[in-house]
Specification:
This protein has about 450 residues and is of the alpha/beta class. Helices cover about 35% and strands about 15% of the residues. The chain contains 14 helices and 15 strands. The protein has helices spanning about 20-30, 85-100, 105-120, 130-145, 175, 185-190, 200-210, 235-245, 295-300, 320-330, 335-360, 385, 390-405, 425-445; strands at about 10, 55, 60-65, 65-70, 125-130, 150-155, 195, 215-220, 250-255, 275-280, 290-295, 365-370, 370-375, 405-410, 415-420. Helix 7 packs parallel to helix 8.
Length: about 450
């Protein structure tokens, strides 16, 4: 275990000679495909034995071998308050005593929906589901049904869940594993998905000319976070709004990651973009499985039981998730919450840039608020093509060095690093120091 300014991953309990994590992972491979329930967790892109977590608290993860890590994955962005926030835990525990699932409507669903709608003026009606994939899949079905068109337009490197319509030139796990599409997606369905380079409004305009009157919706992450973090170019989102309105297509903002992270409400607030539909997840459930889609009343009222477009879910509006969300959102609405979060994130981003410069390792840091990615690329990354030029073997080496120093970042070059309210100033400084040591180590190698 490496030590130094970064202090190393602290051993807080003793273990056998063979790590428990390795034993559990081998056991898992006999029952779970690849030993995991989501591909990036397998560490295929970075090497080494995947983490097997025993517990978490604040900004810390503790694995089954007793090692402690500063966590910048934060359940892939869901835990903006950090792990096991006392008020969220108390709310979930109290609700569990009242019942974990009703299969019927509870007041909690209406309360959380009202809170979200107050933060996002573009949402007049909404529906809860259980995952981001469900939300985006449902929004696309709704867009097709409302417009009576079949084509959708997404962006290269954009990831909107694992629904068939989205697994073409997608980011996140597909980019990590080098998969451009997925077997099992019928060609006929894949042909209904059009792709454009992110940040290229001219390419979008050309596609609309080629398919005038046939595109149901454009779906876009307002801040790309699944090819690594890439900010929208000036005027890009506004141009998407103009082009969709001119053609009669819908604009769907996928705010599963940026919702209540970029601002109270989502990225559409600071970027001043008014979409037809919005998808959300992660933060709105306080770390429990929940997502939602919503938008203009005339569109949302096409959903059953009011309209003919069907969507349902046994656990939709689950009371545990609703209570967790209701315990989380008021804390984000507190004065100065985002200013403090972004201040810490800016300090981390500046420190990482300084560490790159001091080490001589070629790379850059893209940061938007509390989202960031370190790219090992020689040119600025403004789209998926630029992201794919990154040296993934260098990132893998950096990941392993950081892990040895007790800092857990995304096990993929094409994911985001998330800063939470639980990260202290000391955590940020320790992370910067660990990054400096790690970059020097891989630079020597």
């Amino acid at each position: 275990m490496k030590t130094g300014t970064g202090e190393g991953a602290k051993r807080v309990a003793t273990g056998s000679e063979r790590p428990k994590s390795a034993e559990i992972f081998e056991r898992g491979k006999k029952i779970l495909p690849g030993g995991v329930d989501s591909p990036v967790r397998a560490f295929r892109a970075v090497g080494g034995t995947p983490l097997v977590i025993d517990r978490a608290e604040g900004a810390r993860l503790y694995d089954v071998d007793g090692r402690e890590y500063i966590d910048y994955v934060c359940s892939w962005g869901a835990l903006i308050l950090g792990h096991a926030h006392p008020d969220v835990v108390a709310a979930v525990a109290e609700q569990a005593r009242r019942g974990t699932s009703y299969g019927m409507t509870s007041p909690l669903e209406i309360e959380l929906a009202e809170e979200i709608a107050r933060a996002l003026p573009s949402i007049e009606r909404m529906r809860f589901v259980s995952s981001g994939t469900e939300a985006t899949m449902s929004a696309i079905r709704l867009a097709r049904g409302f417009t009576k068109r079949d084509l959708i337009l997404k962006f290269e490197g954009g990831y909107h869940g694992h629904s068939d319509s989205f697994l073409v030139e997608a980011g996140s796990g597909l980019a990590t594993l080098g998969i451009s599409s997925s077997p099992g997606v019928p060609d006929a369905l894949a042909k209904l998905t059009l792709n454009a380079p992110y940040n290229d409004a001219d390419a979008v305009e050309k596609i609309f000319r080629q398919h005038a009157g046939k595109i149901a919706a454009v779906i876009v992450e307002p801040v790309a976070a699944n090819m690594g973090v890439v900010a929208p170019a000036r005027g890009f989102l506004e141009r998407l709004r103009e082009l969709t309105e001119l053609d009669g297509a819908l604009l769907i903002l996928d705010e599963v990651i940026t919702g209540f992270r970029s601002a109270y409400g989502g990225a559409q607030i600071p970027y001043k973009v008014h979409p037809d539909l919005t998808t959300m997840g992660k933060i709105i459930g306080g770390g429990l499985p929940v997502a939602a889609y919503g938008g203009r009343a005339e569109i949302m009222e096409m959903v059953a039981p009011l309209g003919p477009i069907y969507q349902a879910g046994t656990l939709s509006g689950n009371p545990l998730a609703m209570r967790a969300g209701l315990a989380t959102l008021p804390k984000l609405a507190a004065p100065g919450f985002y200013e403090e979060l972004d201040r810490k994130a800016a300090r981390l981003a500046d420190g990482l840039r300084a560490a790159l410069k001091e080490s001589g390792v070629v790379g850059s840091v893209n940061a938007v608020g509390s989202l960031m990615t370190m790219f090992f690329a020689g040119e600025p990354v403004n789209d998926y093509a630029g992201a794919k030029k990154s040296d993934t073997s260098m990132y893998a080496a950096f990941f392993r060095e950081m892990l040895e120093r007790g800092v857990f970042i995304a096990p993929s070059q094409f994911e985001a690093l998330f800063v939470s309210a639980a990260h202290s100033n000391a955590d940020i400084e320790r992370t910067i120091a660990a990054a400096g040591e790690s970059l020097r180590a891989i630079g020597r190698g």
